[in-house]
Amino acid sequence: VQLQASGGGLVQAGGSLRLSCVASGRIFRAYALGWFRQAPGKEREFVAAISRGGGSTYYADSVKGRFTISRDNDKNTVYLQMNSLKPEDTAVYYCAARAGVVVTFTGGYDYWGQGTLVTVSS
Fold this sequence. Notes:
This protein is an all-beta fold. About 0% of the residues lie in helices and about 50% in strands. A hairpin with a 4-residue loop joins strand 7 and strand 8. The model has no long low-confidence stretch (mean pLDDT about 95).
């Protein structure tokens, strides 16, 4: 599976962005998908994840109520809608995929996109 993330950019605090991640390769619907982020000088952390069918979603406490993960299995795409952005959301955002059930830890994912930078100004 190859993943290509896009949609990052510069936004003011309180603004919104939508990240997209297109997958190519094997059967998209067989993979659970996640979004992670890494801020400068920090470890990569979990943001959100979605099950293969899209019926189950999981969020980090820091983004719950502000971010929404979704997927379109016909378009081989996973999205991360980010609202009410804060400066502390500034990071490189990565999409990731794993065969099987959804998990929320970094080491559980086998395939990673290249990352897209989100910068939130105060």
